[in-house]
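Input chain follows. Return C-alpha cells only.
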Amino acid sequence: MRNTGRTIAIVGAGLLGCLGAIALSRRGRRVVLFERDGDILGRASRFNEGKVHLGFTYGLDRSGETAARMFAYGIRFKEELARLLDRPVEEFFLHQRCIYAVAGDSALALEDALLHLDTLDGLHASHLASGGAPATASGPFIRRLTGRELAARFCDTVTAAFDVAEPILDCDRLCDGVAAAVRAEPGIEIVAGCAVHAIEAAPVPTVVDADGNRHGPFDRIVNAAWDGMPAIEHNSGRPAEGHSLRGKTGFVAEVRKGMPEAPVTFCWGMYGDIVPQSRDHAYVSWYPSCRMGFTTGVSAGSGWFDAVAESFDFDRAYQDCRAAFSRLLPNLELAEEPAASRAGAILAHARTDLQDPGSGLHRRTDFGIHPHDRVLAVNTGKLSCAPGLAAQLAEIA
C-alpha cells in the first residue's frame, strides 16, 4: 500500500462516493465521507432498476458514442467491483440477461434498432478479440426472439424483442455490501447528517455545510453528491451549466400471475422496466407515468427532489404503470396496490425530457471526473459506471 498521508474529503455517499472512499483508503489516504442523510447509500444508488448498462438503452444517440462509453464501463462492472471490494460479488446480481422489447410506437424504427444492436454486437466482439471476458457465461450476446416467442409473451403492438446479455443488480444487496465494506475500512470517517452547501478551493480546500460551519482543511475534495453536485459547484463559484434533474419512481409490486421469465425493458423513447425480484414480486416503472418532475434549475440541489416527492401522486402513477404493463404483457397481473415505492433523482446534461428525440438524455457522453484545481466534480452518468470511475478517482486524487 502506498501511504501518502493525504486527507481527501468526498461529498456524497452514494455508490461512487463509497467505492471511491474505499479505493482511496486502500491507497493510504485518510478519507472523510460527507453524507446529508443519516446513513450512507440510502438514495438513488439503492432506488433504481439495477441495470448494468451495456449501451442497449441509448439507441437514439445515432453517433453510437453513448453506447460505446456505457459498454466500456458496464462490461468491466463486475470485475472492477470485485477488485474494489476484494471479494466475489455474484450475490449482488439478480439476473444475467434481460429482454429488450420494441413497440410499434417506438421512437427508434426497427431497422434503426437492428443497426444499433449490430453496433453493440461489434463492440462485444472487439472486447472478446482483445482478451476480455464475455458478457455472459452462457448464450449469445444478442438473440432475437422468434415470432412464436413474441406472440406468447407480448401483445401484438410489440414488433420485435431481443434477449441480451445485460445483467441486473439487486440494489439493496449491493448497497448493503458496499456500506459494510466502507464501515470496515479503518481509513474512512463518515460524517452523516451533514448537508454540504459549498466547497471552498482557496486558500485551502474546505467543506462548508448548510449552517455555515467549515470542515477541513483537506488536501483534495471530491464532489460526488449526485443530484446535489451542480448546486454545490454553483454555490462555490465554479461552472455547473447545462445540467438537469429528473425525479423518477418505480414500484415493488406483487405479481399475481404472468411473472416474466427475465427482466423486460420496453424501448426506445418513452419506456418501462419490469424486473422480477423474487418468486412473486417485481420492480416496475413506466415512463412518463413514473416521471415525478424535470427541471434545468438545479440550484436547489437535492432539496428539489424532496419537494417534488411531497406533492407527487404515487397512487396514480402506480395505476398508470400497472395499466401500461397489462396492455403490453397480456399474461401479467399486478396487485391493485404496490408493496413499496422506489423513488430517486437522476442527474444529466439535458435541456429537455425524454419525449424529445434530440434530448441530451439520449446522449450520455459527458459524465466523468472534472478537476478544478484541488476540487474534483464527478458526474457518475449511470450506476454501472461507478466502479470504473472510482478506480480512476483513486489514481487522480
